[in-house]
Amino acid sequence: MIQMKQVYKKYSNGIMAANGFDVNIQQGEFVYVVGPSGAGKTTFIKMMYREEKPTKGTILINNVDIATLKAKRVPYLRRNIGVVFQDFKLLNQLTIYENIAFALEVIEEHPKTIKKRAMEVLDLVGLKHKARMMPDELSGGEQQRISIARSIANQPKIMIADEPTGNLDPETSWEIMNLFEEINARGTTVIMATHNREIVNTIRHRVIAIENGLIVRDEQRGEYGYEG
């Protein structure tokens, strides 16, 4: 489903965030991306949804080279990719329901489909009863659940998460991880950058470790492998 072939990314300040990435990720896999701060993890995942373009190399998503994809085609690529961030990125002026509906309106879904799908994903994350509330009326964990619901509303084949538990307490982090496990069990490929050692070592999946722009480890059912 995802292939990186000799991918390099050098920023204008001279930092080499990707130094020859070669990776294959199959449909339905769950992959943790780990490594020290500044290692290149965020660049790795941002290149998958074309937030960043590689300096050199090939990135295939379902056999489409997104490295050379024209800018006008990028929104169509992202229809098949859900993205979850550490800081939620909800629209505070919209209700919870409207946040999810908006993501579907952007891709011009039919109004009946929008209503049905929005309520389905709210039910999946256990917050259907809070559909009319505003984001600032929810806890951090609930806001992250809404962020996840929004990202899967269009039923993407790939979900990319950048430190999704980074701002959450341990108990809430486990609840969010259980949600990702359920989404993965339904067939969605999940790629998650994380510093959460306990989660990686407890819920075992493939681990890709990045240091100084290099993939130094790629293990099935791997461990976090760093202190702290």
From TrEMBL:
Domain ABC transporter: 2-227
Pfam families linked to this entry: ABC_tran (PF00005)
GO molecular function: ATP binding; ATP hydrolysis activity; transmembrane transporter activity
GO biological process, any: cell division
Annotated SMART domains: AAA
Principal cellular location given in the protein's record: membrane
Keywords: ATP-binding, Cell cycle, Cell division, Cell membrane, Membrane, Nucleotide-binding, Transport
SUPFAM superfamilies associated with the record: P-loop containing nucleoside triphosphate hydrolases
Gene3D superfamilies in the record: P-loop containing nucleotide triphosphate hydrolases
Family matches, as InterPro entries: AAA+_ATPase (IPR003593), ABC_transporter-like_ATP-bd (IPR003439), ABC_transporter-like_CS (IPR017871), ABC_transpr_LolD-like (IPR015854), Cell_div_FtsE (IPR005286), P-loop_NTPase (IPR027417)
GO cellular component: plasma membrane
PANTHER family the record matches: CELL DIVISION ATP-BINDING PROTEIN FTSE (PTHR24220:SF470), IMPORT ATP-BINDING PROTEIN (PTHR24220)
Assembly information from the UniProt record: Homodimer. Forms a membrane-associated complex with FtsX.
Function, in words: Part of the ABC transporter FtsEX involved in cellular division.
NCBIfam families in the cross-refs: FtsE (TIGR02673)
Protein name per its UniProtKB record: Cell division ATP-binding protein FtsE
Source organism (scientific name): Jeotgalibacillus campisalis
The organism's taxonomic lineage, starting at the top: Bacteria, Bacillati, Bacillota, Bacilli, Bacillales
